[in-house]
Amino acid sequence: MRTRNVLAAGIAALPLLSMLAAAPSAEAATASCPADSLCFWVDTNYSPGAPGVVKHSNPNFTAFPHSACQTGTWNDCISSIANTKGCTAYFHVDANYRGHSHSLAAGDRVPNFAAQPPTGYNDPGFNDKISSDSTC
């Protein structure tokens, strides 16, 4: 009887284990961000797929097409970010480096803008609002 209960418990845990195995770690998810870059993803937790990548300051993210975004560009479409540059970057809600902004130190990443610090900014209103970035 004990063997059957253990077996049943193991079988019941399989869906949970497969979900955990399928969820990539933040390190694995952000590994696709090249060195000396700012990377950004459509959804929270660095998904789906390959990130948008920039190397320098950009006054207007409408210059970067992305078909998965409602706007057709990365403008107002970013939900998670990573910084592999050697300096702090600033993300702004308006074009031309204007409006509300948040900094992202070298080597840092934010999987969800609404999350509490140090993981996030405690700023759900920043989600899907980024329009420009400034960096070294």
Automatic annotation (TrEMBL):
It holds the Pfam family Inhibitor_I36. Residues 116-136 are annotated as: Disordered. It comes from the Bacteria. Residues 1-28 form the signal peptide. Keywords: Signal. The keyword Signal applies. The keyword Signal applies. InterPro entries: G_crystallin-like. This is Peptidase inhibitor family I36. The lineage of its organism: Bacteria, Bacillati, Actinomycetota, Actinomycetes, Pseudonocardiales.
